[in-house]
Amino acid sequence: MYTQALNAQALDAEPDRADPGVAKVEDAVRLQRFQERIDAEERIEPNDWMPELYRRTLVRQISQHAHSEIIGMQPEGNWITRAPSLRRKAALLAKVQDECGHGLYLYAAAETLGVAREELVDQLLSGKAKYSSIFNYPTLTWADIGAIGWLVDGAAIMNQIPLCRCSYGPYARAMIRVCKEESFHQRQGYEIMLTLARGTDEQKEMAQDALNRWWWPCLMMFGPPDTVSQHSDSSMRWKIKRFSNDELRQKFIDATVPQAHYLGLTVPDPALTFDAASGHWRHGPIDWDEFKQVVAGNGPCNAERMARRRQTEEDGAWVREAARAYAEKNRAKAA
Ligand code: BYC
Question: pTM of the prediction?
Answer without folding.
Answer: 0.92
